[in-house]
Each structure stands twice: as structure tokens, then as C-alpha cells.
Write a structure and sequence with these properties.
With 384 residues, the chain is α+β, with helices and mostly antiparallel strands. 58% of the residues lie in helices and 11% in strands. The chain has a 6-stranded antiparallel sheet. It starts with a helix and ends with a helix. About 2% of the residues have low confidence.
Length: 384
């Protein structure tokens, strides 16, 4: 089996594996077999049982309360926290399951139960600069129909990358006449278009508008590093190895190189943000600002796989058409050579009788005057 066929089968296998993994992940998060529990930040004006409310005053002291029974005849039944935390509640604190389970621990609350009117309960958050809370509710597992096919997005993105690279290769033939940085310009446009769906990620999730631009624009830095890495590999490899092997190396360089850059860049980004106490995401139902892996997104493995696939397919498309053009040129040259030989043979067939007739006449005329030259000329004619 030819190597390029093996590489193509590996490429298809990678996509199928990723589709399977994403489908299982979608089933777990969006299409569970039963209704799931949703964790959120509850509303102070409508407290319910098991909701947990927290306040942080100007001195940094945190107090917290757990609702035992919701509003009943205008009163709430709740427990107060036994401890006054001085840390642990940040501007970006989330309302996910881990935090809810932690704050739901009975050991954190006093044994006594208190009665509060709704007005008295709302007064608890007066003169504080930060309020947060945790709650849970059972929600239906119904989701938009397109989520059932979301795991096929990797195929669409790979095909989109292939078409864009093909089109930009056509544009580069014209743009390269204007500037020597044509590939860099087209690469920037290509990366922007391919990552455009990620740029539509809701801006409300970002604490500052500038953070969205900085967070998303990292991909340009990664892409240019990979571009120059591939150019370096081309210079080193030269004509070594088959075309299929060279493309396989480029594919691995983009896939693994992009993944390594995303992880290293994401972790460095997390360290700098944590040191400067700047959080990418604000508190909109959830926040992952404390998890450094969240700083890698959205440039994860599937993103780099689509770029590597698009580049791989386009290079093989170019190679295939180049081979076809060479084959046509070779057939045309063979045809021209056959036509030339045919014309030459026809011409020789016309010339030879006249040549022989003239040669014999010359030999006959020399036979009387110069016998030696006659012999030499006759031998030369016999060798023609």
C-alpha cells in the first residue's frame, strides 16, 4: 500500500476518533439520560431552600448564610455561617458544583436556626461591595437540535481550512508580485477567518473588552511561529524523502507544535494574569478563571487538527495537479518526437534514391580518371 494512502487513512481515523469523543462529551453535558442539576448564583429577591448567599464587606470579611426553608408567610428560615472568612471569595467566584458542595458542608454553619423576614434578609447585603451565592435547580435536558450534530463541526472546519488555503494559494500568485510578505498577510487573514466563530464568543464573559481581543489574538502569534518552523524544515529537508513523508512531517509539526504552543502560551498567560490579578472572565453563571487549562481555549487540539488537515489536503491537491501537468507534457513531447521521426523517415525515403543515383554517376565518371578515388568513394557509399 502506498504511503500517502496510509497517511490519508490515519487522517480519517483521527477525525473519527475526535468525533466519537466529542459526541460522548456532548451526551454527558447536553443530552443526559435524565434531567440534570444546574448550579447558579441565586437571586437575593427570591431565595429558595438550599441556596447559599455570601457577602464581603469593605474590610474583606466574608459572611455566608444557608436557606433552610424558602419564603413562608413572609419569613425565611436560615442558618448563619460559623466562620468569617478573610479570603476565598473573589470577584470572579463561580457558582458551579464544586463550590456549591464545598459551601453546603453542614460543619460550616451554626446549629441554631434563625427566622428572618425578607426585608431583614435583604438588609444583610447593605453596605457591602460584593455579593455572591450558590444555588441549584433541576432543569430539563432539552437543547437546540443543532447540538445533536455539533461533533461533526471538526469535519466542516477541516474542509473550510482546505478551501481557504486553496483560495489563498491562488491569491498569493498575484499578491506576491506586490510584496514579499504576501504569505504572512494571507496567513493572518486565514487564521482570522478560521477562528472567526470563536470571536463571537459572548463578550459578557470577559471582565474587560480588551481582554477578549488579547485572549483571541494569541492565535496569530502561534500561527507565525509554525509558518517559520515549516519554512525551516523545508530548507533542512530539501529533496530528502518522498513527498508523502514530507507532508506527514508538516502535518505533525502543525498538530503537535500548535498544541504545545497553546498549552505553554495558555499557562504563561495564566501566570501573568494571576500575578497581575486580572481575570479573563467575569462572573456570568460560571467562571473558570482559576483553572489554567481554561486559558488554552479555544485553540485546542481540534482547531490545530483542522489547520493541519486543510494544509495536508491542499498540498496533495497541488502535487496531484502538478503530476497531471507533467504527464500531459510528457505525452505531448512523445507525440512530437514520433511526428518528427516520421517526417525525417519520409524525407530520407525521398532523398535516398536521388543520392544513390548521383553517387553512382560520380563513381562512373571517376573510374576513368582516378581509379583510387573511385575505390575510396565506392567503399564510403557501401558504409552509408
Amino acid at each position: 500500500m502506498k504511503r500517502w494512502i496510509v497517511y490519508l487513512l490515519v487522517l480519517i481515523g483521527l477525525h473519527l476518533c475526535l468525533i466519537f469523543v466529542q459526541r460522548e462529551s456532548m451526551k454527558e453535558h447536553f443530552f443526559p439520560k435524565k434531567d440534570r442539576t444546574h448550579y447558579f448564583s441565586p437571586n437575593w429577591n427570591s431565595p429558595g431552600a438550599d441556596d447559599i448567599f455570601m457577602v464581603k464587606d469593605t474590610l474583606g470579611i466574608i459572611r455566608y448564610y444557608k436557606i433552610i426553608e424558602g419564603l413562608k408567610e413572609g419569613n425565611l428560615t436560615l442558618k448563619s455561617g460559623k466562620y468569617n472568612f478573610s479570603a476565598g471569595l473573589k470577584e470572579s467566584i463561580s457558582g458551579d458544583k464544586w463550590n456549591f458542595d464545598f459551601m453546603n458542608n453542614e460543619a460550616l454553619y451554626a446549629d441554631s436556626i434563625q427566622q428572618f423576614s425578607l426585608e431583614a434578609f435583604l438588609a444583610l447585603k447593605e453596605h457591602v461591595y460584593l455579593t455572591r451565592g450558590f444555588g441549584k435547580a433541576t432543569v430539563s435536558s432539552k437543547n437546540p437540535f443543532f447540538l445533536e450534530y455539533y461533533h461533526f463541526m471538526i469535519i466542516l472546519r477541516s474542509l473550510g481550512a482546505f478551501i481557504l488555503i486553496w483560495f489563498f494559494g491562488f491569491l498569493n500568485a498575484y499578491l506576491s508580485a506586490l510584496t514579499k510578505f504576501s504569505k504572512e498577510i494571507l496567513l493572518g487573514i486565514f487564521i482570522f477567518l478560521l477562528s472567526f466563530p470563536e470571536w463571537w464568543y459572548p463578550g459578557a464573559f470577559y471582565q474587560y473588552p480588551l481582554m477578549k481581543i488579547l485572549h483571541m489574538s494569541r492565535i496569530f502569534f502561534y500561527a507565525f511561529i509554525l509558518l517559520y518552523a515549516i519554512r525551516w524544515l523545508d530548507r533542512k529537508a530539501g529533496n530528502k524523502g518522498t513527498f508523502a513523508d514530507q507532508q506527514a512531517i508538516k502535518f505533525i509539526t502543525i498538530l503537535l507544535g500548535g498544541g504545545i504552543l497553546s498549552y505553554c502560551g495558555g499557562y504563561l498567560y495564566y501566570l501573568v494574569s494571576d500575578f497581575l490579578e486580572i481575570h479573563i472572565y467575569s462572573n456570568v453563571n460560571f467562571d473558570k478563571g482559576g483553572n489554567w487549562r481554561f486559558y488554552i481555549s479555544p485553540y485546542i487540539g481540534s482547531f490545530w487538527l483542522s489547520i493541519a488537515t486543510g494544509n495536508f489536503l491542499n498540498n496533495f491537491r497541488n502535487h496531484f495537479f502538478q503530476l497531471r501537468r507533467k504527464a500531459k507534457a510528457f505525452k505531448y513531447a512523445q507525440k512530437q518526437e514520433l511526428e518528427f521521426k516520421s517526417e525525417l523517415e519520409t524525407l530520407q525515403a525521398k532523398i535516398n534514391p536521388h543520392f544513390l543515383y548521383n553517387s553512382l554517376n560520380s563513381i562512373a565518371s571517376l573510374a576513368q580518371s582516378d581509379p583510387e578515388k573511385t575505390e575510396t568513394m565506392a567503399l564510403a557509399l557501401s558504409k552509408f
